[in-house]
Amino acid sequence: MKHEKNYHCMTLETPYGSLIIEGPITGASLAKMDFHEDLKAFRPAKKQHVALIEIADLPEGRMIIARENNIVVGYVTFLYPDPLERWSEGNMDNLLELGAIEVIPKYRGNAVGKHLLQVSMMDDAMEDYIIITTEYYWHWDLKGTGLNVWDYRKMMEKMMDAGGLKWFATDDPEICSHPANCLMVRIGKRIKQDSIEQFDRLRFQNRYMY
């Protein structure tokens, strides 16, 4: 499958000034930018910067960023699912996972995540993919936001909805291990029925077990 990446950009006005939301960007472009020290949800900021440069340069990898001048203050990534997850078992070249989304505390509450997803979906090439995100409550910043699990889930669903991702049922054990966890999916307009059926087989692997 040919992985097209068509760049889009928009400006988001916030109480702290203007942010540029843009992408997909290249690893070379990302390497020239500064990476805010508060982008540390997954690993220390410097290490995360290096990891994101690598993702941006993957053939299927997509990196959409929010920046304040030359400082990255938020991002969302899309790439093939982790080989250790069930979502990779079908070897579907048209299945991408929203791997991470993060915004520094200063800009939270200003719809940065929502706009990152909107810019992501401006690229018509995304209509050739099934996009998934697996949401686990233990990854959520409940302490930093002061939200309980259910309010955070509502916030997450509202944000993902901005990118067209909707709740889908699954029997995946990790997702089923807590009722707040969920699978959210966006099926591109050009996805064919056989790919949808293949994805359904990934969603439900134990439907005949008792």
From TrEMBL:
InterPro entries: AcuA (IPR024699), Acyl_CoA_acyltransferase (IPR016181), GNAT_dom (IPR000182). SUPFAM superfamilies: Acyl-CoA N-acyltransferases (Nat). Signal peptide: none annotated. GO terms for biological process: acetoin catabolic process. It holds the Pfam family Acetyltransf_1. CDD domains: NAT_SF (cd04301). GO terms for molecular function: acetoin dehydrogenase (NAD+) activity; acyltransferase activity, transferring groups other than amino-acyl groups. It comes from the Bacteria. Keywords: Transferase. Residues 25-192 form the N-acetyltransferase domain. This is GNAT family N-acetyltransferase.
